[in-house]
Amino acid sequence: MSIDAALRALTPLLGDRLSVSKSDLLAHGQSETHFDVIPPDGVVYPRSAQDVSDIVKICSQHRCPIIGYGAGTSLEGHTLAIQGGIAMDFRDMANVVKINDEDMTVRVGPGITREALNQELRATGLFFPVDPGANASIGGMASTRASGTTAVRYGTMRDNVIGLEVVMADGRIVRTGTGARKSSAGYDLTALLVGSEGTLGLITELTLKLQGQPEGIAAATCAFDTIDAAVEAVTSTIAMGIPMARIEFLDAASVAAVNAHSKADFPETPHLMVEFHGSQTGVAEQAERFGEIAHDSGGSAFDWATNAEDRTRLWQMRHHAYWAILASRPGSSAIVTDVCVPISNLAQAVRDTQDDIEASGLPAPILGHVGDGNFHAILLIDPNSADEKRIAKELSERMAQRALSMGGTITGEHGVGMGKLGYMSSEHGAGWDVMGQIKRALDPHNILNPGKVVQVNG
Amino acid sequence: MSIDAALRALTPLLGDRLSVSKSDLLAHGQSETHFDVIPPDGVVYPRSAQDVSDIVKICSQHRCPIIGYGAGTSLEGHTLAIQGGIAMDFRDMANVVKINDEDMTVRVGPGITREALNQELRATGLFFPVDPGANASIGGMASTRASGTTAVRYGTMRDNVIGLEVVMADGRIVRTGTGARKSSAGYDLTALLVGSEGTLGLITELTLKLQGQPEGIAAATCAFDTIDAAVEAVTSTIAMGIPMARIEFLDAASVAAVNAHSKADFPETPHLMVEFHGSQTGVAEQAERFGEIAHDSGGSAFDWATNAEDRTRLWQMRHHAYWAILASRPGSSAIVTDVCVPISNLAQAVRDTQDDIEASGLPAPILGHVGDGNFHAILLIDPNSADEKRIAKELSERMAQRALSMGGTITGEHGVGMGKLGYMSSEHGAGWDVMGQIKRALDPHNILNPGKVVQVNG
Ligand SMILES: Cc1cc2nc3c(=O)[nH]c(=O)nc-3n(C[C@H](O)[C@H](O)[C@H](O)COP(=O)(O)OP(=O)(O)OC[C@H]3O[C@@H](n4cnc5c(N)ncnc54)[C@H](O)[C@@H]3O)c2cc1C
Ligand SMILES: Cc1cc2nc3c(=O)[nH]c(=O)nc-3n(C[C@H](O)[C@H](O)[C@H](O)COP(=O)(O)OP(=O)(O)OC[C@H]3O[C@@H](n4cnc5c(N)ncnc54)[C@H](O)[C@@H]3O)c2cc1C
User: What is the CATH number of the domain that holds A245?
Assistant: First the structure.
């Protein structure tokens, strides 16, 4: 078999940096959500772009699939070895290569996690803003075009990756982007690779934009009686042009789960969690104007997190909400929806989703980065119930189709992996074929994360 | 000849929307800079995506080149018909399709100019921020990944185009992006097409992000004794995290040209032109802090444009600076350089450029969007002097190579066209081959603006 041949050829090159131990294979065959375990045939731990290139050349020769692996926190079965092959785990390429304070950029290895990176940046007064709930790797975040609570202010990985070093499917090492803030020098390969989920190239280094720590920060939670009231406060805030750094929505069920998991005592009603960044006076002004809007929309129980620890605790609770929600139904697994709609349709989309959830009978808390029009229903299912799985999949499909009919997208930030493959044609039409053409041109033997994102026989 | 066959086949389809009149061909064979006139064999004026698709299918069949044409203001010979074929002029697809106030987006035809668009948006309180000096078409701006004075705040076309309708080289009509603010649904075709200069597809509609008119605006000019002092003020302002909406540099020669052309009376020394956007108090705070920085760097003759007319006049002078500079040497034509470097190297890059210019003996005013690290030397040459042309080209090449050695790019915003083709390999290495692979996959017969941006026989 070609995969076996590849493993044999890799052994002398990698020694114990090639593992076929059962526990390693299993660990890399799992995912955070409802997918079955699908282990790879081997796991490699490269230490440099040259390593990656050497591995890719061997795998290319033997037509052996290679699946990039960061922290394994992706939610659509992205890293599962559905055609076998090797997982390429970037844990040993997790260094900070160089911080350029003056240019507010940093070069990092793909394996570094966002928390480790921000730890390293502490002394500089700079930070990297993109913050998915999990402590994901920067390479994985680039590959899924991740975002998080701060995207409403600082953008997603699309906006915060300015250059890459990538190993292509034939082993060539390519650098995209420059150290400059902008360029018109040809096709935007950086943007093409960001969000490509390891199907076009393997990222071996990233240059990231950094932000200065704001002089002033104010964060608050605000309770609402109804979902509608909370969403109305969001759309009004956006319409008024108030620059939010974060504006997160949690429905009553999400709040209850967070209370239980984080020993908090929020009133168990729909909530917004907000944060403002700017100068001291700017932040005070923004907070005051948001307070008025929230009040007009019926918000109450305003709670300002005045010091840094309170703020850290607040956002930690938010970041752990997924696990809190999972824990709210012990033994359950989750189908995580991830629609994103134009702001003008947000209220309707959330309302309709709520109705769907009620009709389904499934526990399915809703939360999300509503400042972007992006929200998730976490559909909690009994993994042993085929019925619940079917109902959840139907519900998930209805949400995706509704998002499309409202001019939105089937995935705001989690990506396609295996889970969203079935909706790609509905979203993109002929554009999905164009993606397939690009895939075939750049990975003619279909060895990079095959079976994900695109269809190669289009 | 295949082009003749294409023209014959297009005639019944287009009637008088296909022109082969000498004046039309000449008008489309010119460029704003030093390139020789190279007219196409015909000019077509489509009215819809379907028209474009029909035309492309015929041209594809006959292997006839098609060159997208917006306002023809690009600076690197982008629209010249170096392999013959037809110019596709989008002047009749210049409509506003739909304004979505609530989502702060607009859908437009590619032929609309940025000034016409902002005129149409007037009543909404929204505006489209990207503003190259010329009154370019939005389709052309997307195709060159244009920016302008406000990119430091609002980004370039990369950041402000959220979706496209595009006709591919085989006539397929493809929609990229959605109405949502972000998406992780597969490859970022929007970003791939933005900046592709008509070599991958023809843009027939764009969805753009809009901005709310800021509540407060303050603009000023500030004179400095030396270039160094002015650039130092820029880097300090950035380091302090003061959010500028615009920060433009003009050297003494540029100021002199502007004075002569716009009947202004700025002191003829290096200048910064700045603008701040925000709430009234925010703007006042920013302006004050900038004032302190400028003062510390030796800035003087601070002149605040307090009312809207003064501001309009100020930015009009800036936008017309290119023509002012051209007029400063009657009968000259220009080679326009467009390097962009990391901010940490900006001062050195400008200094070295100045030294080069002095050594060359050519008149070559420097100006630029320094907040992005982007500046231009406008090399004024006697079009009949082979010597001057050679000296200018050497100087331009030295600037490009220096930008690369400093971690920057050969073109911050103007694009590649013909003029920068020779440096693409230096900037991108193997990445340029990857661009060629994409081009071959999406335009196998090389009919879309052939000879520009990429090399198809790589
Ligand atoms: C609790 C929780 C909360 C979350 N919240 C968010 C959120 O707010 N926003 C959000 O966007 N996501 C969120 N996610 C999803 C997940 O964190 C993101 O998708 C993240 O970007 C995945 O990063 P990772 O390092 O875990 O990548 P992995 O799961 O390891 O891999 C993801 C994909 O990238 C590829 N890949 C990884 N590294 C490389 C590389 N170096 N080169 C090429 N390809 C590579 C893989 O092949 C795979 O296709 C959440 C997940 C959890 C569990
Ligand atoms: C005085 C002056 C100042 C300038 N200042 C700036 C500046 O500050 N910043 C900046 O970025 N540029 C600047 N430019 C350059 C120029 O304005 C930009 O490059 C602009 O984006 C070109 O737009 P256009 O409509 O004129 O395009 P064109 O010149 O007509 O075409 C440009 C390219 O786009 C392609 N194209 C056009 N329309 C389409 C379409 N619908 N589909 C596919 N391809 C298409 C063409 O084939 C060509 O390759 C300046 C130019 C002048 C003369």
Answer: 3.30.70.2190
Q: Give the pairing of strands A42-44 and A86-89.
A: parallel
- Grade residue B1 by pLDDT with cuts at 50, 70 and 90: low
ipTM of the complex: 0.97
Q: Are residues A57 and A104 in the same domain?
A: no
Domain closes at, from A43, A69, A91: A91
Domain that holds residue A427: 420-458
Contacts of B440 in chain A (CB under 8 A): 441
What's the CA dihedral at B394, B395, B399, B401 to 10 degrees?
Answer: 20
Q: In terms of domains, do B87 and B100 share one?
A: no
Q: Is the pLDDT of residue B458 over 60?
A: no
Put simply, the answer to whether A186 touches B412 (Cβ < 8 Å) is no
Residue among A182, A412, A438 whose CB faces B413 most closely:
A182
Judge whether residue B65 has pLDDT over 90: yes
Q: Which of A212, A230, A261 is at the close of a domain?
A: A212
Say yes or no: A230 and A176 in one domain.
no
Under DSSP, is residue A389 helix (H, G, I), strand (E, B) or coil? helix
- The arithmetic mean of pLDDT across residues A376-396, rounded, is 97
How far, in Å, is the centroid of ligand 1 from the Cα of A422?
20
Domain assignment present for A413: no
| Residue whose CB lies within 8 A of the most ligand 2 atoms, among B59, B66, B69, for a mutation test | B69
Q: Nearest to residue B143, comparing CAs of B94, B188, B202?
A: B202
Indicate if A148 and A241 belong to the same structural domain: no
Is A79 close to ligand 1, i.e. is its CB under 6 Å away? yes
Ligand nearest the Cα of residue A205 is 1
Residue reference for tokens 């081959």: B433
Q: Is there a single domain that holds both residue B224 and residue B287?
A: yes
Q: Three-class SS of residue A258?
A: helix
Contact list in A for residue B176 (CB cut-off 8 A) is 428, 431
| The one-letter amino acid at A397 | E
Six token digits for residue B81? 């018909």
Pairing of strands B86-89, B96-100: unpaired
Whether A270 is covered by a domain: the verdict is yes
CA-based torsion, A68, A74, A77, A78: positive or negative: negative
DSSP of B128-184: -----SS--BHHHHHHHT---TTHHHH--HHHHEEEEEEEETTS-EEEES-SSS---
pLDDT for B329-364, tens place per residue?
A: 999 999 999 999 999 999 999 999 999 999 999 999
Judged by CB atoms closer than 8 Å, whether chains meet at A372 and B181 is answered as yes
Q: In the predicted model, what is the mean pLDDT of chain A?
A: 96
Output the residue whose Cα is nearest ligand 1's atom 14.
Answer: A132
* Number of domains composing chain B: 5
Cβ <8 Å between B195 and A189: no
From B168, B183, B437, residue closest to A434, measured CB to CB: B168
Note the pLDDT tens digit of each residue in B112-136: 999 999 999 999 999 999 999 999 9
Q: What is the DSSP letter of B54?
A: H
In whole angstroms, what is the distance from residue A252 CA to residue B436 CA? 53
Q: Domain for residue B365, yes or no?
A: yes
CATH code (residue A81): 3.30.43.10
State whether B319 and B330 are in the same domain.
Answer: no
Phi-psi region of A145 (alpha: psi -120 to 50; beta: other; left: phi over 0): left
8 Å CB contact between B383 and B399? no
Same domain for B202 and B170, yes or no, is: yes
- In the sheet with A173-176, reading across from the earlier edge strand, the strands are A96-100, A105-108, A201-209, A161-168, A173-176
Residue B8 lies in a domain: yes
pLDDT of residue A231: 94
